[in-house]
Amino acid sequence: xxxxxxxxxxxxxxxxxxxxxxxxxxxxxDPTTGGLSRGDIREQSRRVFEGLKESMREAGGSLRDVTLxxxxxxxxxxxxxxxxxxxxxxTEAPFPERATIVAKELARPEMxxxxxxxxxxxxx
Length: 124
What we know:
single chain; alpha+beta; two-stranded antiparallel ribbon; 2 helices; 7 strands; 23% helix; globular
């Protein structure tokens, strides 16, 4: 697979793979409706990390291959709850580097979180 992209409005979902490098952007999509999750920060965090897990599977890897995650939150008060959910998904070393950015707003008003993840997936 050289590239997998599905467009959701103007946002590509699914991994983009170039050689061993994978880049994916995840928004809090509801797996039942395909629309945005309107849950609290814990629910939305689970949606983005589940999306990341699925994107990594599609790219032939796993969460252990993730090297860097940029997390965008609209409130610094959501950091602790997001971090608790993060710990459910990233359970063993090596852990990815992470930058958490608090933004005034994201592309859609109902979004509390968005992530950009980078991974290195070696050929099988």
